[in-house]
C-alpha cells in the first residue's frame, strides 16, 4: 500500500512537471511539421549563394560558423485566421522565454518581428528571426551554427542582402518569403 501510494505520488509529480514545462522552439517545429497550415523546410547555409571572394575575413568567419537554417511559416487565409492567432500566440510565448536574448526588434510596413539568439554573447548557437504580418502570416527562421559571433553576424547580414538567394530552391517557402 505504501509503495503504491509513493508510486502514484511520483507519477503525479512527473505529470505536473511535464505539463508545466514550457515548449521549446524546436519542439514547436517538430509538433507542427505535419500541420497543413505550416510550410517547413531545412536548408543548408550554402543556399545563401554568397560568393566567398566578395566577403571580408569577418564575413567568411561568420559564414563558416553557419550550419543550416530551419524555416517554419504559417500563411494566413480567410479559413485559418483563428488558427493563425492561436499559433502566433504560442510562438510569442515561446520567444518571450528569458533564454532568448533579443538582438533587435523589427517594425516595417510589411509587419513586425524580432531577432533573438540562444547561447553566450560571444558564442551563439542559434539565431531566431521571427516576422509576423496579419495579412501574410508569420515565419520563423532558426539559423543554426557553432559559436556564431553577433558582430560577425551583422557583417554577414550585409553580405546576405547583396547575395542572390535561390528562392526557387526553397519551393513553397521561397514563394512565401517573396510575399
How does this structure look, described?
By secondary structure, this protein is α+β, with helices and mostly antiparallel strands. It has one domain. Helices cover 39% and strands 32% of the residues. It is built from 6 helices and 6 strands. Strands 1-2-6-5-4-3 form a 6-stranded antiparallel sheet, sandwiched between helices. Helix 3 crosses helix 5. The longest helix is centred in the first third of the chain and has 19 residues, at 2-20. It is globular. The N and C termini lie far apart (63 Å).
Secondary-structure element order, as H and E?
HHEHEHEEEEHH
Strand order of the largest sheet: 1-2-6-5-4-3
Structural class: alpha+beta
Helix proportion range: 25-40%
Which stretches of 5+ consecutive residues score pLDDT under 50? 3-20
Global morphology: globular
Number of helical elements: 6
The number of distinct structural domains comes to 1
Please state roughly what percent of the residues sit in beta strands, choosing from under 5%, 5-15%, 15-25%, 25-35%, 35-45% or over 45%. Answer: 25-35%
Integer-rounded radius of gyration: 19 Å
- The N- and C-terminal alpha carbons lie at a distance of 63 Å
Mind sketching the topology for me?
Layout: H1 2-20, H2 25-32, E1 38-44, H3 57-65, E2 66-75, H4 81-95, E3 101-108, E4 111-120, E5 123-133, E6 137-148, H5 150-161, H6 172-178
Helix pairs in contact: 3-5
